[in-house]
Design goal:
alpha/beta, Rossmann fold, seven-stranded mixed sheet, 7 strands, about 35% helix, globular
C-alpha cells in the first residue's frame, strides 16, 4: 500500500514537470534513455542537494570559459542555478539533469524568474544513464565515489569537452587546472584526444 501511495504521489509531482520539459529547446535535445518510466519512477538520489553558492557557480563557468556557443550540462542540477547563470550571463544554452522532480520544478520556476527558460531545460533523469554527447561543458558538485563511477562516461565525450567540479577530484584523473574560490576549490579537466 505504501509503495502505491509513493508511486501515485511521484506521478502527481512528476506530471507537471513532464509537461514543462516537453517544450523543445532549439539545438538542445533531451538525452537519450530518459523515457517516461525513468522520469516517473526515478530512483533515490546518490547525494543530497547542497546548493553551490552563486559566486562559486559563476567561477566554475569562468574557469570553463563558457561562451554563447556552449551547451552546459549540469549533473545533479539541484535548483538549476548553474545552467541559469550560463544562459543569463554568458548566453550559453544549458541542460540540468536532476533525479528529484521537486528540484526540477523549482529549476523551471527559477529559469522563468530569470527570463532564460528559452535557453535552458531541466529534466528528471539519472546522470548515469543520460546521454551527454551534446555537452561542450559538464559541471558537477558530486562526491568522489560518484565522480569515479562517471569517469568512463566523461572520458568518452568529445575531445575538448570541459569538465568542471566544485570541490571534488576525479580519482585517478588529475585535473588540468585548479582554482581556489573563497573556501572552495574548483577543478577543470579537458577531455583528451
Amino acid at each position: 500500500m505504501a509503495a502505491r501511495f509513493i508511486f501515485a504521489f511521484s506521478i502527481l509531482v512528476a506530471v507537471p514537470v513532464l509537461l514543462l520539459s516537453q517544450a523543445p529547446l532549439p539545438g538542445l535535445t533531451e538525452p537519450r534513455g530518459q523515457g517516461l518510466a525513468a522520469r516517473v519512477e526515478g530512483r533515490p538520489p546518490d547525494i543530497f542537494f547542497n546548493p553551490t553558492r552563486h559566486a562559486i557557480a559563476d567561477a566554475m563557468l569562468q574557469l570553463a570559459g563558457v561562451a554563447a556557443g556552449d551547451v552546459v550540462y549540469d549533473l545533479g542540477s539541484g535548483d538549476g542555478r548553474i545552467p541559469i547563470i550560463a544562459a543569463q550571463k554568458y548566453g550559453a544554452r544549458g541542460l540540468g539533469i536532476e533525479i528529484d522532480p521537486r528540484l526540477v520544478t523549482q529549476s523551471w520556476g527559477n529559469a522563468n524568474d530569470a527570463e532564460v527558460a528559452n535557453r535552458v531545460k531541466f529534466i528528471v533523469g539519472d546522470l548515469f544513464e543520460a546521454d551527454l554527447s551534446e555537452a561542450t561543458i559538464v559541471t558537477m558538485y558530486l562526491s568522489p565515489s560518484i565522480m569515479k563511477r562517471l569517469i568512463p562516461k566523461l572520458r568518452a565525450l568529445t575531445p575538448g569537452t570541459r569538465l568542471v567540479s566544485h570541490q571534488f577530484d576525479m580519482p585517478g584523473w588529475p585535473p588540468d587546472e585548479r582554482r581556489q574560490v573563497d573556501e572552495a576549490e574548483i577543478l577543470l579537466w579537458r577531455v583528451p584526444k
